[in-house]
Amino acid sequence: MNEKREAVIGVVTASDRASAGIYEDESGPAIAAYLQKALTSPFRIVRRIIPDGFESVRDTLIDLSDNIGCDLIVTTGGTGPAPRDLTPEATLAAAPRELPGFGELMRKVSLTQTPTAILSRQVAAHRGKCLVINLPGKPAAIELCLDAVMPAVPYCLDLIGAAYIETDPARVAAFRPKAK
Ligand SMILES: Nc1ncnc2c1ncn2[C@@H]1O[C@H](COP(=O)(O)OP(=O)(O)OP(=O)(O)O)[C@@H](O)[C@H]1O
Ligand SMILES: Nc1nc2c(c(=O)[nH]1)N[C@H]1C(S)=C(S)[C@@H](COP(=O)(O)O)O[C@H]1N2
């Protein structure tokens, strides 16, 4: 079993306007609130609100992974096709080993909410012992996407050697295949 210690979880909002204070970031707080409800093992959240852009997102992810020691980073925003939407490219630059099933599943569930779900290029990937998951910027996407992928996150963290996390089964039915 992986190390039972406080997990460190990064929550990154990539948005030109939210980072400039033009509108209030709702999606970062929605991710934090989701984690508070879903996880029962100890963790602390490290928040960042940054402008869109390749270097901005890449450097933030590398800092959170390598210097802050995040086990998991959840990003929101910058996944669409607009010129400054570069969160997926930046994620794969920081975390080159992609887990394509995450993006596939999140787009599938998002399509039940909106036909423009196919515009999100969101990915998940890991940088060593740190898993990075992209979410779209819209606050309505947060719970839907996290509900879809969270059952597989604890076991994914086990496999990459990150902290051991536990979920509230009434909220998220985490699945860990039984050891042989
Ligand atoms: N973090 C967020 N918090 C609250 N609302 C958001 C957030 N991100 C996006 N939205 C809402 O979704 C709409 C469309 O999102 P989109 O990704 O196009 O963001 P945006 O506002 O264009 O971002 P940026 O300012 O970075 O260009 C926004 O106009 C806003 O109403
Ligand atoms: N669940 C969900 N997924 C969604 C949306 C949404 O409202 N809900 N918006 C879509 C839209 S309109 C866009 S442009 C893309 C990318 O959004 P982003 O650039 O804010 O990440 O996410 C898509 N995925």
UniProtKB/TrEMBL annotation:
Pathway terms, separated by semicolons: Cofactor biosynthesis; molybdopterin biosynthesis
GO molecular function: ATP binding; molybdopterin adenylyltransferase activity
Reactions the enzyme catalyzes: molybdopterin + ATP + H(+) = adenylyl-molybdopterin + diphosphate
GO biological process, one term: Mo-molybdopterin cofactor biosynthetic process
PROSITE patterns: MOCF_BIOSYNTHESIS_1
InterPro entries reported in the protein's UniProt record: MoaB/Mog-like_dom_sf (IPR036425), MoaB/Mog_dom (IPR001453), MoCF_biosynth_CS (IPR008284), MPT_Adenylyltrnsfr/MoaC-Rel (IPR051920)
Keyword presence, Nucleotidyltransferase: yes
Residue ranges constituting the MoaB/Mog domain according to the UniProt record: 10-156
E.C. code: 2.7.7.75
TM annotation in the entry: none
Keywords, in A-Z order: ATP-binding, Molybdenum cofactor biosynthesis, Nucleotide-binding, Nucleotidyltransferase, Transferase
General function of this protein: Catalyzes the adenylation of molybdopterin as part of the biosynthesis of the molybdenum-cofactor.
Protein family membership: Belongs to the MoaB/Mog family.
PANTHER family in the record: MOLYBDENUM COFACTOR BIOSYNTHESIS, MOLYBDOPTERIN MOLYBDOTRANSFERASE
NCBIfam families, per the entry: molyb_syn, PRK09417.1
Official protein name in the record: Molybdopterin adenylyltransferase
Organism of origin: Methylosinus trichosporium (strain ATCC 35070 / NCIMB 11131 / UNIQEM 75 / OB3b)
